[in-house]
Amino acid sequence: MTQADIGLIGLGVMGENLALNIADNGYKVAVYNRTASKVDAFLESAGDLAGNVMGSGDLAAFVGMLKAPRSVIVMVKAGEPVDAVIAELRPLLEKGDVIIDAGNANYHDTVRRFAELDGSGIGFLGIGVSGGEEGARHGPSIMVGGSQAEWKNAEAVLTAISAKFDGEPCCAYLGTGGAGHFVKTIHNGIEYADMQMIAEIYGVMRDGLGMSASECAKVFNDWNAGPLDSYLIEITGHVLDAVDEASGQPLVDIILDSAGQKGTGRWSAIEALNMGVSATTIEGAVAARSISSMKTERIEGEKLYGAAAKGKATISLETLEKALLAGKIAAYAQGFAVMAKASEENGWNLPLDVIAKIWRAGCIIRSRFLDQISQSFASGTAANLLTQPAFVELMKECNGALRAVVATCAVNEMPAPCLSSALAYFDAYRQANGTTNLTQGQRDFFGAHGFKRIDREGDFHHKWPSLVAK
Ligand code: 6PG
């Protein structure tokens, strides 16, 4: 057999499907996995694609299967496993070869790996890949970071295997170094916020309005034909509709309300905090997962304070739909603002319109809404979505609904950390005269931190009275 166009290390669910996707697009792909039996099983199951796949459980033999200059996709668990693979691979590669890390890496690790490979002649790309198993097999969204030269080498394959929106590939070069992994991290932060807000709206339906899972499913299915049309709304309908075979009950009613998290949502919040960008809705979503995992304490809490009354809310489904849209606008505004700031700090020049474009298909947050966002960023220069004309109109139309839902949640004792923080973000963003004048006064009182005045230029300090300790 001729040599492979590209190699792939790591035959987990994502790696296996990415390899089949590459083969399906007419490229020859060689695979390697530390557990050699996985390679055999993969090759045996390749079916019609057998002619385009090859592989070995021996790393040197695998490298020998690749056309020079070699491109090797690494799709292993993020963190130390990636460093271990790079360390083993490095002596087997030559100048001009490229390692492509396609996992959910922390972008700081990506920056470090670039530095470690610098001067070795071996290139590196850090790419964010979104879309889960299905996306990996039939077209994910791919966010590329690294040098233009390396991108040029990998461009044809990565573009071919990516999802397409109206024929346009959902794969783009976004910037140097860790840009691709940073953007993927923020994608996931937005994904957390999106999912949490959907869960909060479901909570209003279930607990506030007393709706059954299948009644909720019908509403989400209907919404998927409107402005909320998205993959996450679509799967929400399916999740709510599923019935547990063993008990005959709606599956969602017997799934434990304790959410897992692998880290990307938390990293988004950490990066936002580090850069001083307000991303409270993303933070709220991370915190909501954390408190959800405190099941035992929450059971005790309910005993201490009593359960919230059920079925007492009065709010229309139309209001819930509009509130979710308004919450989404605020959450996406935060995510894009974080990327804009990171772009400035890292000199990436991130194309926000292109990012929205390549999220329109393939990835977990794909939606009609992202098409509107990309058009908006393409025609305007403002970094915050809340100032883009199309979204100003939408927000004017929908913020009242968000307000009504947050008020309903507060009155009916239903937690809504993301919807309420989205509303607070919006209200703070459009409030010309805030209240931190008082905060500044306090800071100056106890720490002589100084303040600025609205009527004069300069830095000021007031002679505050000294308080006698009680
Ligand atoms: C994607 C997903 C993917 C994965 C997350 C989930 O874009 O394809 O975001 O990356 O599902 O790792 O993360 P949590 O386990 O933290 O929810």
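^ 6-phosphogluconic acid complex. Residues 104, 130-132, 188, 191, 260-262, 264-265, 363-364 surround 6-phosphogluconic acid (CB under 6 Å). The domain at 6-177 is CATH 3.40.50.720 (Rossmann fold).
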